[in-house]
Specification:
- Residues 59-246 form the GTP cyclohydrolase N-terminal domain.
- The chain has helices at 37-41, 83-86, 110-118, 161-164, 166-170, 189-197, 226-232, 237-247, 254-257, 298-301, 310-326, 339-342, 345-357, 367-375, 388-392, 406-414, 435-443, 457-462, and strands at residues 101-103, 179-186, 213-220, 224-225, 263-265, 271-277, 289-295, 330-336, 397-401, 418-422.
- It is of the alpha/beta class.
- The chain folds into two domains: 1-34 and 48-177 and 224-262, no CATH class; 182-219 and 269-478, GTP cyclohydrolase II (Rossmann fold, 3-Layer(aba) Sandwich).
- The protein is globular.
- Bound molecules: zinc ion.
- Zinc ion binds next to loops.
- The site of zinc ion has 4 residues, from loops.
Length: 485
C-alpha cells in the first residue's frame, strides 16, 4: 500500500474573520499582533494548495491573543491514510497565519534556534534545503498509520515530507520533516568483547570482525494529536490542555486560546530507532523480531554508572538484535529520551542522594519511596505513547521482547501487538550496586525472568547499595565511601 497522492482534494476553510481586525493594530507594549491580509483573501490556486503567507518574523505576535496567529490554519485530518488529504503539519515560524500546530520544531532545541537568531547567526526566515535529505531506506506506509489509536504522538508522514508535499515546498511552503532516516556503523565495547570471547560471531555483513555492527536508524520528534493523547491518558482534551498550560507556567497560551488547533509539538526529547537486519521484514509476522524499548539513562548508558541496570540491558538487547538479524530476522532498539523516568537528571541525582543518605542506607524496600519523596511521583514516563514508533515501523508481532517492565509490556500488548517471549537479562550482566534497583523492581511486579523470582519482603530489606559516606567530611574523590583520615 502506497500513499495515494491526491491532486485536488486539499481545501482550505476560511475561518470567521469579522472580529480579527479589532485589535490587530492595537499596540501592546511594542508587541503588536498582526494578521496577514493576504492569508485571509487569497486561498488556493487550481492545484488545491493554499498560497503560503510569509510572516515577517521581525513582527512579534502574541499567541495569547486568540486571533493573532493561525487565522487560516491549513486543515489537518489526523489519521487519514492519504497524506495529501491528511494535510501537512505546519509549525514553522514562516507561515504564522496558516500554522496548524502549537509549539515549535526541534523539540527542546527550538530554544537554540532563538539563540542563533539573537546572535545574528541564523536568518529567522531561512527555509531549509531538503533536496538531499530523504530517507536512505523506506518505512511504510503501514495500515496502523491511519489509526489514531496506534499513532497519535508522531507524524507517520514526518520522514517523507518532500515526497508527500513536494509541490507545497515548490510553492514556497516551509514544511519540516519530524523524522529523519539514515544508516550507521556503531561500535560498542561490549560487542567488541562479545566478538573476542566468542559470544558474538562476526558475519562481515551485520557484525564486522572489529565488533562494529551495521544499523539503519531513524530519529523522531514528537508530534502530538491532542484528542488522542487525552484518550490515552483517560482524560478530557480540555483537562490535558489546562494541565500542560499550568505546569509549564503558561508557555503555550494556544493550548487554552485555540482549542481548534489539535496538533502540538511538545518541547520534550524525542526518540531514536535502531534497526539491525532488513527493515522490510518487520511487518512479516513469520520473520523473527527482537525488540527493546529503552528509556534514556545517560549516567549508565553513556558513562557506565553502576547504580542501575540500564546500560547492561541496552547492550544485552543490542547483542540479541545482532543475533536475530544474523538468523535472518530483525532487531529493533527504540531509545526514548526519558531521562530519570522522565523526571530529568537533576531530580534523579537528588533521589540518589536521598537513597544513599536515608536512615539505614540505600535499600531496595525504599527505592520507589525515595523518588516519590523528592518528585511527588514515582515515574512520569507513562508508557501510553511508547508503542507509536512500533506501529510506525509496521510491527504487529514481537518474538523476543527484552525488558523487565510490565508497564512497557502491557502498553505494547494493549495496542494489538503480540509479544511471544520475554527475554531476561543474564544475571552476570547486573552490576552489584544495581541489585537495589532490580530487587525493588521485581518486588513491585517487574518481570526480570527466572533468575530473580521469589523476591520476598526479607530479601527486599536485605538488599543494600554502596555507601558513600556523604556526610562524613568526604570529598568527591572518596568514591569507595571510605572514611577519609
Ligand atoms: Zn539507569
Amino acid at each position: 500500500m502506497k500513499p495515494e497522492i491526491a491532486t485536488t482534494t486539499t481545501t482550505t476553510t476560511t475561518r470567521e474573520t469579522d472580529n480579527l481586525n479589532n485589535n490587530t493594530e492595537e499596540n501592546m507594549g511594542g508587541l503588536t499582533p498582526r494578521v496577514s491580509k493576504k492569508a485571509r483573501t487569497e486561498h488556493h490556486e487550481q492545484d488545491g494548495i493554499p498560497i503560503p503567507d510569509f510572516h515577517d518574523s521581525d513582527h512579534i505576535q502574541l499567541t495569547s491573543h486568540p486571533d493573532a496567529f493561525g487565522v487560516d490554519p491549513v486543515p489537518i485530518s489526523w489519521g487519514h491514510p492519504d497524506p495529501r488529504v491528511r494535510g501537512p503539519v505546519i509549525c514553522t515560524v514562516t507561515h504564522s497565519s496558516q500554522r496548524n500546530a502549537i509549539g515549535a520544531h526541534q523539540g527542546s532545541y527550538c530554544i537554540y534556534t532563538g539563540l542563533a537568531v539573537a546572535a545574528n547567526k541564523l536568518d529567522p526566515n531561512y527555509v531549509p534545503d531538503l533536496s538531499l535529505t530523504s530517507p536512505v531506506f523506506p518505512i511504510g506506509p503501514h495500515p496502523a498509520w491511519s489509526d489514531p489509536k496506534k499513532i497519535g504522538s508522531i507524524d507517520p508522514f514526518g520522514h517523507i515530507v518532500t515526497q508527500c508535499y513536494g509541490d507545497w515546498l515548490e510553492k514556497g511552503w516551509d514544511i519540516r520533516p519530524t523524522i529523519a532516516v539514515t544508516k550507521a556503523h556503531i561500535d560498542l565495547p561490549e560487542c567488541r568483547e562479545g566478538v573476542a570471547s566468542g559470544r558474538l560471531i562476526p558475519d562481515g555483513k551485520i557484525l564486522l570482525p572489529s565488533g562494529q555492527s551495521v544499523v539503519a536508524k531513524a530519529a523522531i520528534e514528537p508530534v502530538w494529536y491532542l484528542p488522542e493523547i487525552a484518550r490515552r491518558f483517560q482524560t478530557t482534551e480540555t483537562h490535558l490542555r489546562h494541565s500542560i498550560f499550568r505546569m509549564t507556567n503558561g508557555m503555550y497560551p494556544e493550548l487554552i486560546t485555540r482549542p481548534d488547533i489539535k496538533i502540538f509539538l511538545p518541547p520534550i526529547g524525542g526518540l531514536t530507532i535502531y534497526i539491525w537486519g532488513d527493515p522490510a521484514t518487520i511487518p512479516d509476522e513469520d520473520i523473527e523480531l527482537t525488540c527493546r524499548v529503552h528509556d534514556e539513562c545517560n549516567g549508565s548508558d553513556v558513562f557506565g554508572s553502576d547504580i542501575c541496570t540500564c546500560r547492561p540491558y541496552l547492550t544485552h538487547a543490542i547483542e540479541e538484535c545482532i543475533k536475530t538479524a544474523q538468523r535472518g530476522g530483525c532487531g529493533i532498539v527504540i531509545y526514548y529520551r526519558k531521562e530519570g523516568r522522565s523526571l530529568g537528571e537533576v531530580t534523579k541525582y537528588l533521589v540518589y542522594n536521598t537513597r544513599k543518605r536515608q536512615e539505614g542506607g540505600d535499600s531496595a524496600d525504599r527505592y520507589f519511596r525515595c523518588t516519590e519523596q523528592v518528585a511527588g511521583v514515582q515515574d512520569t514516563r507513562f508508557q501510553a505513547l511508547m508503542p507509536d514508533p512500533l506501529h510506525f515501523l509496521g510491527v504487529t508481532k514481537i518474538h523476543n521482547f527484552i525488558s523487565m517492565s510490565d508497564m512497557k509490556y502491557n502498553a505494547i500488548v494493549s495496542t494489538g501487538i503480540q509479544i511471544v517471549n520475554r527475554v531476561e537479562i543474564p544475571p552476570e550482566m547486573v552490576p552489584e550496586d544495581a541489585m537495589v534497583e532490580i530487587t525493588a523492581k521485581v518486588f513491585h511486579g517487574y518481570n526480570a525472568g527466572k533468575a530473580y523470582q521469589g523476591i520476598d519482603e526479607e530479601e527486599l530489606k536485605k538488599t543494600k547499595g554502596r555507601e558513600y559516606g556523604y556526610d562524613k567530611n568526604t570529598t568527591a574523590s572518596d568514591e569507595d565511601g571510605k572514611d577519609q583520615a
